[in-house]
Amino acid sequence: MADVIAAIQVMGTYKFYKLDFSGWSKRITGSESNADYWKTVFSEHPEFFRLNEEKDKVSLVWRRSHQRNFHVDRQEILTRDQIYSLPEQEKNTRISRTPLSNGDTATLVSTAIDLHSRAIESEKEKRWLLPSLVTILAVFLGAILQSWS
Description:
By secondary structure, this protein is of the alpha+beta class. It is 63% helix and 13% strand. α1 runs antiparallel to α7 and α2 (21-29) packs across α3 (35-44).
């Protein structure tokens, strides 16, 4: 849970919206060596994270909904005309999607916590149900065995 929250915070605010697994690992933990771990985290939580078509880069779903109009070096949103006037190389490498606001990030974190809490409650309900089912099954089997005697 803590790792999902950390990923949401970093991926929501980092200047580039999409990186490969080692890139996000470096940004989130300071080490590229955990790339496989982060690939698993991202894959297990498609409600927050999306892989690109090649399955080698990942981004935050909410951030993908933003337009690609954020200049990462200038730290500003550009108009369509400003983007068209940029050199092709700059358009392809320096324009990203707008970072999430603090409120957007807080909403995602709150959603993650809520989903996690619901999953825990669901597991508790399953654990409560199992002993009841075992008891009912034992009574049923006892009745069948008793009738055979």
